[in-house]
Amino acid sequence: MNKTNGYHQKAIMTENGKHIGWVDLKNIDKLNKHAELGIAIGDKAFWGKGYGLAAMREMLGWGFCQLDLNKIWLRVEIDNLKAIKSYKCIGYIEEGILRQDRLRNGEYVERLRMSMLRSEFLYK
Predict the structure, then answer these.
(1) Is residue 38 part of a domain?
(2) Global pTM?
(3) Catalytic residue positions, numbered
(4) Which residues are registered as beta bridge partners of 117?
(5) What end-to-end distance do the CA atoms of the chain give, in Å?
(6) Are 10 and 18 in contact, with CB atoms under 8 Å apart?
(7) What region holds the N-acetyltransferase domain (predicted)?
């Protein structure tokens, strides 16, 4: 499924056709050839089963090959260790800490910015 509101969004489906989440590219900067990746799997029963990694690989391939991006980046809350581990597993590199970047439960939390370059994805 493609949205037409300025970003590319795809449904994450199980082998049986159950819709379990979304992966998207947003904040697309055509001049500098980069975009932000977002991913969400709503049903925790499907966490840790490879669906997120598979969806990210597909979206990275789409972004680098179809949209001709050079860099795809993301932001993740610094205490989301499972997500950070999966992003590193797929090849994302830490760029830095975004201080007090998100308001969560009335308090600001830091987020980690991570990215992958086209050359890092295509030549793994």
Answers:
(1) yes
(2) 0.90
(3) 87
(4) 71
(5) 28
(6) no
(7) 1-115
